[in-house]
Design a protein that fits this description.
The chain is mostly beta strands. The protein has one domain: Beta Barrel (Maltoporin, Chain A), CATH 2.40.170. About 5% of the residues lie in helices and about 60% in strands. The chain is built from 5 helices and 31 strands. It has a 22-stranded antiparallel β-barrel. The two termini are about 40 Å apart.
Length: about 600
């Protein structure tokens, strides 16, 4: 078996090491982005450390869920995993995201957005990782470091903005695909983009299931999701977009190797409605957006909850020459009810909270090639009152090929409904968690359009971090604002396009933490290589992780190296066949103590593109 895996690896690497290439077709050094502002702006003009994951990268990954694409392409972004597919919810869930050593369990310190609108479970405050399908997403923009000035609570460690399928390229497209592989894993998906004059309609359906890789316990998973959006351009000044999505999921927690479980079933339904009305009057442009997220969770241990996260965003930008001023307001209402069994009795609780926020920012060009960026947000919570969140930074372009930038920013996380009111450790007097981030970095382009690099140094200090500790005043464990955070590190990436249809991509992050945390490795390295020849394309991805804490109590740490290979052939016009070979080194490893991840496994698929 080891010889076979090694042979596959060698052949795959050789497959990826030849060819000629026009890099300008693949890599845009200074793309237009929207996440670092509330409008389109060149990446070089904002001080954020921002990574763009393109539609090409998403499509070529052949991933049904988009989160694994992030962990391969964003420096320092770590994603926890437990199975061959699916992440789950509640305490045993995977799919937890960390950046710059800032993580949480539940995952409330990284904000996930869809088109700039916050996505989190109304009671626990974390995103639902099984709800994000590649077919629904045009591109992803990731801010590394706090972004609370623009997006409010939870944007402490960073922000992941999924920008839905709204490409400016008005081209009809239909894709239907299926996969089958190890552990009886099955995937079916379909998507379409259709344009009728000023009207565009996008739709998708996704299904995935697996029997799981654990032989000692039940770790089945299945998920069904649907997405529909419709956009209409009334005239050059106004356009509207309506969206709806729904996903139904079921997973079984297998427990640890030491304490395996069977029939530990978790069911969770998630839905989202969104409306955007966008205006553009030349120098004045912006948007009015409303969203409604809801969920219904039923767990084997008696937990039964309904939650909601809804809100409105309104903002306008004013352009004055090379400078842009932004003014906006956000309103969020979130919470829900839950019935659960604890301490020998049934409990029912229902709580909600709301936040009203105002923010202003300015991106000013005082002299050529210099951009100063500053902003402030005022947040008023119905629970803990009001406070300000500031940020400032600069970026300077020495030439079209070299940019340096620096910023200082504050991020915060509001206590969740569960932090405040649920379970014996809850505390109604909690205040927001806070971090202060300082960073300096540079982006550069070398050898024309062949070699691109990025380097960032950062330090993050946090205070009022919510922890469960023994409170002598009440004689038991309670959540209080007692924790600290002190992280510093480096993020680097290199993209190299030496020849036609050949590319190499490397990103690395080093994070030194004074206070230990799960899902926050000290070293994380990703290396990928891709090559296309005629009807064939191959990709090799290597991930190396070192200094990862798998259990805080025992301070147990681990390291691992995982290599995945994707081979694709366009065999007949719109028909593609592909083979995904995962963990070909057959590495035995775990991210959460006691939960062994699958060793070598595969998926074979076929897709039809029209």
């Amino acid at each position: 078996m080891k010889k076979l895996v090694f042979l596959i690896f060698v052949l795959s690497v050789n497959f990826c090491l030849a060819g000629d290439f026009d890099s300008a077709k693949v890599y845009v050094f200074d793309p237009l982005v929207v996440t670092g502002a509330r409008y389109e702006i060149e990446k070089s003009k904002i001080p954020y450390s921002l990574t763009v994951v393109t539609n090409e990268q998403i499509s070529e990954s052949r991933e049904t869920n988009v989160l694994p694409v992030l962990s391969q392409n964003v420096p320092g972004l770590f994603l926890s995993e437990k199975s061959v597919t699916g992440f789950g919810v509640s305490t045993p869930a995977a799919g937890k995201i960390s950046m710059r050593g800032i993580s949480g369990d539940p995952n409330t310190n990284i904000l996930v957005l869809i088109d700039g609108q916050p996505q989190f479970m109304g009671l626990f405050g974390h995103p639902i990782s099984d709800s994000y399908f590649s077919s629904d997403i045009e591109r992803i923009e990731v801010i590394r470091g706090p972004a609370s000035v623009l997006y409010g609570s939870n944007a402490m460690g960073g922000t992941v903005n999924f920008i839905t399928s709204g490409s400016k390229e008005r081209k009809n497209k239909v894709r239907i695909g299926t996969e089958q592989g190890s552990f009886n894993t099955r995937v079916f998906n379909g998507m379409s983009k259709i344009y009728f004059g000023k009207l565009n309609i996008n739709a998708s359906m996704n299904y995935s299931s697996t029997d799981g890789h654990r032989k000692d316990a039940d770790d089945r998973f299945n998920s069904t999701g649907g997405f529909l959006s419709a956009g209409y351009e009334f005239n050059p000044e106004f356009n509207i977009d309506l969206q709806a999505s729904l996903s139904s999921n079921k997973f079984f927690d297998p427990g640890t190797i030491e304490k395996p479980l069977n029939n530990a079933e978790y069911k969770y339904l998630r839905g989202r409605y969104a409306l955007s009305l966008n205006n553009n009057f030349g120098d004045i442009y912006g948007s009015l957006r409303a969203f409604y997220n809801f969920g219904d969770h039923k767990f084997y241990d008696g937990w039964n909850s309904d939650d909601v996260n809804t809100g409105i965003t309104f903002y306008q930008n004013y352009r004055a020459g090379e400078s842009v001023f932004t003014f906006g307001t956000d309103y969020k209402y979130y919470g829900g009810d839950a019935e659960y069994f604890m301490m020998g009795q049934n409990n029912f609780k229902k709580f909600h909270s709301n936040e009203t926020e105002f923010y202003a920012s300015a991106n000013i060009t005082p002299v050529k090639n210099l951009n100063t960026d500053a902003g402030v947000r005022y947040t008023y919570s119905s629970i803990f009152g009001g406070f300000f969140t500031p940020q400032a930074g600069i970026s300077y372009r020495f030439s079209p090929d070299y940019t340096v930038k620096t910023r200082i920013s504050k991020g915060f996380r509001s206590p969740t409904i569960v932090d405040l009111y649920f379970f014996p450790v809850a505390n109604e007097k909690l205040n927001p968690e806070n971090v202060v981030n300082f960073e300096i970095g540079a982006d550069a382009k070398f050898l024309g359009n062949i070699l691109f690099g990025s380097l960032t140094f950062f330090t993050v200090n946090g205070y009022d971090i919510i922890q469960s500790v023994r409170n002598p005043a009440i004689g038991r464990m309670q959540k209080i604002n007692s924790g600290r955070l002190n992280n510093k590190g480096i993020e680097a990436s290199v993209d190299f396009y030496p020849a036609e249809d050949l590319n190499f991509n490397v990103n690395y992050a080093f994070t030194d933490k004074k206070y230990d945390a799960k899902y926050a490795p000290k070293h994380q390295l990703n290396i990928s290589a891709g090559y296309a020849y005629s009807i064939l394309r191959g990709n090799v991805n290597l991930k190396h992780v070192n200094g990862l804490t798998t259990d805080l109590a025992s301070k147990k740490k681990t390291r691992y190296t995982v290599v995945d290979v994707l081979l694709n052939a366009q065999v007949a016009g719109p028909v593609n066949v592909y083979l995904k070979l995962n963990n070909i080194l057959n590495w035995k490893y775990e991210i959460d103590a006691g939960y062994k991840l699958p060793k070598f496994n595969f998926l074979a698929g076929v897709s039809f593109d029209i």
